[in-house]
Design brief:
Blueprint (H helix, E strand, L loop, with lengths): L8 E2 L10 E8 L23 H7 L7 E4 L1 H5 L1 H12 L4 E6 L23 H19 L5 E4 L6 H9 L4 E2 L24 E3 L5 E3 L4 E4 L6 H8 L2 H5 L2 H7 L4 E4 L7 H13 L4 E7 L14 H20 L4 E2 L2 H15 L1
Parallel strand pairs: 2-3, 2-11, 2-12, 3-4, 4-5, 5-6, 6-8
Antiparallel strand pairs: 1-7, 7-8, 9-10
Helix pairs in contact: 1-10, 4-5
C-alpha cells in the first residue's frame, strides 16, 4: 500500500451494523469484445439506451447511483444525454472512468499492458484524465469528483494526477485481486475498508467490496494463491474450495456472483466492521450480448433480479442507508470537524 498511496490513514466508522451504507457504482462504458484485443475503433454505446434499467432499480431505495463514465460515453449524445438530466436533477452522481485506449491523446501503442493506466508515462496519464474530465464538464455540466481506472489500473502517478485535477474520491482498488500476470497492479494487500490518502490525507479511497467467505476464509488469500497456480487450475481447485464451503472469493456484483454469495459476503464483512459497501457492475451488462455475464434475455432477467433482491436484503434485513462515495466522504469530513 505504501508504494501506491501516500499519507494513508484509516477511516473511523460507527460500530452499529444499522449504520451500514450502500453505494452503487456503475462502470459506464462502450461495448467491446472482452476476449478480443483492445481497439480504438470500439466506441459504440448502444447499451446506454437501457441505462434506465439500473436507475429504476435504485430509486425506490433512494439510492443515487454513481455512474463513472468513460470518453465514448461522455462524448456521444446517446451516451451522456440521459445521465446529464439525472445528474442535474440530483438523481445520480457522475464520475470519470478511464479507458486509455479510447481516450485522447493517442500517443501510446494499443496493447494489453497499456490498457492499464498505471503503465503509461505520468504526463500521458494526466493528459488523458484531463481530456476525460473536460469532456464530462462540457457535455454533462457537472464536475466529476470520483474516479475509477478502467481494468482497476491505478498507479501512484495516476493518483497524483487525480489530486492535481481536484478529484476527491478514487474507487479503483479491487481487493484480493492480482493483475501482475497481465502487467497490472496487485491489490492482494488491500481489503474493502475505505481510507484517506493524498498530500493532506483528504482524498478518500473506496475499494470495491470484495472478500473471502467460508469456514477457512481467514486463510483465503494463501489458499487461493495455491489453487490458482496452473496445476491448481487444471485440477479445478478454486471450484472445489468454493463448493466445499472452505473458501470462496466473492465480489459485491451481480456479474458472476449469486445472490446467496453476495448476501453471505455482506454479512461476513458487516460482522468484521465494514460500514460502506459498494455494489458494482458494467453498463453494457444491461443489454444482452455485450459482456460475458449477460448473453441472453434470460441472463438479463436473472441479472436484474439479483440486483433487486440484493437491494431488498440490504435495505430490509440490514436496515442499511443509501449513500454515494462522495456523500460518504462529506459525512466523514463533517464528523471529523465536529470532533476536532
Amino acid at each position: 500500500m505504501s508504494r501506491l498511496f501516500t499519507n494513508v490513514r484509516p477511516v473511523s466508522v460507527p460500530a452499529e451494523p444499522s449504520s451500514a451504507r450502500l453505494s452503487i457504482v456503475v462502470d459506464t462504458e462502450e461495448e467491446f469484445d472482452w476476449n478480443a484485443p483492445f481497439s480504438r475503433a470500439n466506441t459504440g454505446v448502444s447499451a446506454m439506451r437501457h441505462i434506465a434499467r439500473a436507475q429504476s432499480l435504485a430509486e425506490p431505495y433512494r439510492v443515487r447511483p454513481t455512474y463513472v463514465i468513460d470518453y465514448p460515453v461522455a462524448t456521444q449524445r446517446l451516451g451522456y444525454e440521459q445521465l446529464r438530466d439525472w445528474a442535474l436533477n440530483g438523481r445520480c452522481t457522475v464520475g470519470a472512468h478511464l479507458h486509455p485506449w479510447v481516450t485522447p491523446p493517442f500517443e501510446e501503442a494499443v496493447s494489453s499492458a497499456n490498457s492499464f493506466t498505471c503503465n503509461l508515462p505520468p504526463a500521458l496519464q494526466h493528459a488523458k484524465i484531463r481530456e476525460l474530465t473536460t469532456a464530462i464538464e462540457l457535455n454533462l455540466g457537472v464536475k466529476p469528483r470520483t474516479f475509477k481506472a478502467g481494468r482497476y489500473g491505478i498507479g501512484a502517478e495516476t493518483l497524483d494526477a487525480l489530486g492535481s485535477l481536484d478529484y476527491d474520491v478514487d474507487v479503483s482498488v479491487n481487493p484480493c485481486m492480482n493483475f501482475r500476470a497481465m502487467m497490472g497492479p496487485d491489490f492482494t494487500a488491500f481489503d474493502s475498508r475505505p481510507f484517506w490518502f493524498g498530500r493532506d490525507s483528504t482524498m478518500l479511497e473506496v475499494p470495491c467490496t470484495h472478500g473471502y467467505i467460508g469456514w477457512a476464509r481467514a486463510a483465503g488469500a494463501p489458499l487461493r494463491r495455491i489453487a490458482e497456480v496452473p496445476v491448481g487450475e487444471m485440477l479445478r481447485l478454486p471450484g472445489i474450495l468454493a463448493r466445499s464451503g472452505a473458501v470462496n472469493r466473492v465480489m459485491l456484483s451481480p456479474e458472476g456472483n449469486s445472490l446467496a454469495e453476495m448476501v453471505t459476503l455482506t454479512r461476513t464483512l458487516l460482522a468484521g466492521g465494514l460500514r460502506l459497501f459498494s455494489l458494482t457492475f458494467h453498463s453494457p451488462s444491461l443489454e444482452p450480448g455485450h459482456t460475458p455475464y449477460v448473453r441472453s434475455q434470460g441472463d438479463l432477467d436473472d441479472f436484474l433480479r439479483r440486483i433487486h433482491q440484493y437491494l431488498e436484503f440490504f435495505f430490509g434485513e440490514v436496515n442499511g442507508i443509501p449513500s454515494t462515495p462522495e456523500d460518504f466522504r462529506r459525512e466523514l469530513l463533517g464528523t471529523e470537524r465536529s470532533h476536532s
